[in-house]
Amino acid sequence: MKPTVLSAVQPTEGLHLGNYLGAIRNWIAYQEDHDCLFFVVDLHAITVRQDPKVLRSNIERAVATYLACGLDPRKSTLFAQSMVPEILELSWVLTCHSSMGELARMTQFKDKSSKQGENIPTGLFVYPVLMAADILAFRTSLVPVGDDQKQHVELTRDLAERMNNAYGKDLFIVPKPMLGTTGRRVFNLLEPENKMSKSDPTGLGVVFLSDDDKTIEKKFKRAVTDSGTSINPEALSQGLKNLIEIQAAIQNTSLETLASRYAGKQYGVLKVETAQVVIEHLRPIRDKTDALLQDRAALHQILREGAEKARERASAQVKEVYKRIGFVGRS
């Protein structure tokens, strides 16, 4: 049997270059020799209050983008998280087997809650348990993640092992993190010490997959580098390294090889050429996404068919969990 791979992206604020290079592009290759489930985590998205119309539009655009990037619903299971209620059923069981202490230690919770004051949403606290339910509901063996999500997979492993010890060692498959290589982490163009994220309030340092060519070029021209003028491959600032790594990821070459090509060149040359590489690569994805969005009924049908397959798998896992922990009446 093929190993099961599962991954997802939040649909809020539109998908960006970091989502693409760090996750989505890698998914395409996984389709050929893995049993893949890729979805939109709309339940995770509502840890922050959403405008219903905007959320629906973002879900549709995310799915259209998945397809435009090369995901094939004949090879992978594509769905929206909220269309598989079995995930929520399992999430409650896992919540009852987790502790407040281990959830409070989650780095993302500490970072995000520090900005919320006393008004910390409960959903933000239990977010990692819902993520664990996403993974365990489908007997996932491999989870592609960046460094910042590895801690959540470790929690998932802990919960799986805890329940296996309590209710039978074969109840859950204990998943492994699947770390990417080149391009696994893209940083904000204006704040290169921070990863590219939808939470950027201005969006000026984030390259969205929906941005037009001129917007992309403008964002790269404004990219922060350092106080120098010419490139020294032996002493790259984080800003310069970020630009070179973006190019290297798209062109499937090494950072060292590409950096050597720019030795002695002006920063402006790197900015303009990186912008052009990104524009040429993203333009067909953007155009195909826009074309797919013209038939939203077809997108909804793909989601329904994917959700039906996902529910069949998750239902079998939840049924077994309910049986092991002593519930009755689950058919």
Largest sheet: 3 strands, parallel
User: C-alpha Rg, in Å?
Assistant: 21 Å
Full CATH superfamily name of the largest domain: HUPs
Strand content: 5-15%
Structural class: mainly alpha
Cross-sheet strand order for the largest sheet: 1-2-3
Compressed to H and E, one letter per element, the order equals EHEHHEHHHHEHEHHHHH
Helix content: 40-55%
CATH class group of the largest domain? Alpha Beta
Q: Would you report the number of β strands?
A: 5
What does this molecule look like?
The chain has a 3-stranded parallel beta sheet with strand order 1-2-3. The protein has a two-stranded parallel ribbon with strand order 4-5. It is 54% helix and 8% strand. The chain has 13 helices and 5 strands. The radius of gyration is 21 Å and the shape is globular. The protein has helices at 17-33, 42-45, 52-69, 86-95, 100-104, 107-113, 122-136, 150-167, 213-221, 238-251, 255-261, 267-292, 296-325; strands at residues 4-9, 35-40, 76-80, 142-145, 176-179. It has 331 residues and is mainly alpha-helical. It folds into 2 domains: 4-179 and 295-325, HUPs (Rossmann fold); 213-291, Orthogonal Bundle (Tyrosyl-Transfer RNA Synthetase).
